[in-house]
Amino acid sequence: MGFMTGLKANKAYRLQKSGQTEEAIKIYEEVFAEGLNDPRYVLSYALLIIRKGEYQKAKDFLVKHQKAPGMTPEQRVTLLVDYAACCYRLGDIDKGINTLEQQHRKGETGLIYQTLGYLYVEKYDAAKKPEFPPEEDAAETGETAVTEETAEETAEAAEETAAESAPGEAEPAQQPDEETKPEAAADEKELSPREAWDAGVEKAEAFIRASLEYDDEDPICLDNMGQFLYRVREDRAGAKEWFEKALANKDSQIDTLYFLSLYDEEAGDNEAALKKLEKAVVGRFSPLNYCSKETVEKEILRLKGVN
Hints:
This protein is mostly helical. It is 63% helix and 1% strand. The chain has helices at residues 3-17, 21-33, 39-51, 55-64, 73-89, 93-104, 110-123, 148-161, 193-214, 219-232, 236-249, 254-266, 270-280, 293-304, and strands spanning 146-147, 190-191. Mean pLDDT is 87; it is low at 136-151, 157-164 and 169-186.
């Protein structure tokens, strides 16, 4: 990599900061082709293409540059969070969750609490809850029973494999052969698919509550708690206070404004709901927003009576 490559990278970064994203992307791609591997620019470029919705491209790029020299622990966490967001948007939320769970065991960070908490809400959203077979029919349908011990072992194995050289793994580990998996002890409590789901929900709630013990003023973690109660527990009344706490700490948070607008509309205050939505629609949307800009725009038009 030559001296001019570094100058071009600085130019791309300045263009990015000034909002000239397409020109910045073009120059970034030139300097990476020339061999640039500076973590500052790796993360800046990845953010740009993630915001464009090019999740597969961003994911592949992050894997390729996961060992950029001089990467700080904070940059490493950012890279993993971006990777997990791409996995989620590409339809593999479990891989994203496993990656962040593995990193969380190495130490607490606010960014992991924010992101993993949200992914848990997405995974266990009541609207996505499967139709479980009747408990008494599980054996007859050939449903594989999961024990508490083997469920934990399986989760740990998944985190370690994280497939296709996920950031943090030099090479993907091999999945254990079925015949080498430990046999469940006869007296171990078996978890049905329904019980496994419920255990996941409990784990998610414990994690989100731990995030608030870590930082009880973090607006994203407060919003995660609100969304968990609203979407997972379906406790709309209990969720409202958490959304209000989140709004008090950050009055421009898109999802918080969206959910609070629903309460306003239910109370018959369409004007207040519209005000919140109009504030939300000008925010910067990310892959980890519950509602898209298009969703908010449609809600605004609906409240205005525009078809």
